[in-house]
Amino acid sequence: MIRIIFPLLLGIATLFSIAAQAQSGVRLVDNAPDSYTVVAGDTLWGISGRFLQQPWRWPEVWRLNRDQIRNPHLIYPGQVILLDRSGPWLSIGRRIDGSREVRLQPQIYSEALDTAVPSIPLQIIEPFLSRPLVVDGPRLEGSATIVATETSRVLTGSGDTVFAKDVGDSADVWHIYRPARPLEDPLTRETLAWEAAYLGTARVTERGTPATLEIVSAVEEIGVGDLMLPSERPAVFSYVPHAPAQALEGRIISIHRGVSETGRLNVVALNLGERDGIERGHVLALFRNRGSAEFNGEDGKESFQLPEKRYGTAFVFRVFERVAYALVMDADGHVTLADAVRRP
């Protein structure tokens, strides 16, 4: 009997421990609703914010496994999100009718993946999902190169013809770019990669050496020596926000459009990448460097390094070997170059 009772008590204690952990760490917003019906235009972050004070902690109350967190595709317009305050827990339900209790029902959804609710506003990050953005050594070596233009024009644009070498057979559409500036670590000054300047898109019209391409679109003038990479098909971005499993220490190394300060819902580059364990969906806390101060007192001049201030969060949406791009989701004040990012 003891052999039966002891494992049973241990199992019950474990369940209470899990529930207690969720209760102790996750806080609901004031007047959190009992349920919410998803509508077109919602994001995972926004839906979470209707229930939780820290939206990025949604996976803790969803009880998702790691594969679901990385690529959930589980939330669609019309579904009902239910709040169980005893955990708290969030789950997907279906409202039977207006007079009856909401119940959970097993369901099969046949919607196309592109109708899934994204994690963060896609209209902001969409240009960053398919364009080269970052070019490291292997990508530079694997790029095609424009070697000539039709009628020897110095610069070309939409509708013009160009000729390029090293155009493989794997893609018909190519992004045209040039490495614009190095992405440097703000502390060591080491060049981590090169941020690519997107110039336009070209389509192969005739294969050969060199290949013939027609410029389909151009945001800047294109010329001999510019580089090309195969166009990447944009993927549905539906990663659930979650904290990294390990401690991380990084810095903001670049702000989109080359400015030195930015704010909420703007894109920043970090000196952390795949080699550091960063993955899409990671949420990082932002810390402001307050600098140092000098105090002239009775004992003479004293210097003090002021403590950093945690002031916001950023959501990682694209990762390369040594750098990553993140969208600033919350910020109390300006986001500045060299600000620190860490596991929240």
Note the topology.
Blueprint: H1 2-25, E1 35-37, H2 44-51, H3 58-62, H4 66-70, E2 80-84, E3 89-93, H5 122-130, E4 134-135, H6 137-141, E5 144-149, E6 155-156, E7 161-165, E8 173-184, E9 191-206, E10 211-218, E11 222-223, E12 227-230, E13 249-255, E14 261-262, E15 267-270, E16 283-288, E17 292-297, E18 300-305, E19 309-319, E20 324-331, E21 335-336, E22 340-342
Antiparallel strand pairs: 1-2, 2-3, 4-9, 5-7, 5-12, 6-11, 7-10, 8-9, 8-12, 9-10, 13-15, 13-22, 14-21, 15-20, 16-19, 16-22, 17-18, 19-20
Describe the structure.
There is one protein chain. The protein is α+β, with helices and mostly antiparallel strands. Helices cover 16% and strands 36% of the residues. It is built from 6 helices and 22 strands. Strands 5-7-10-9-8-12 form a 6-stranded antiparallel beta barrel.
Explain briefly what this protein structure is.
The chain contains 6 helices and 22 strands.
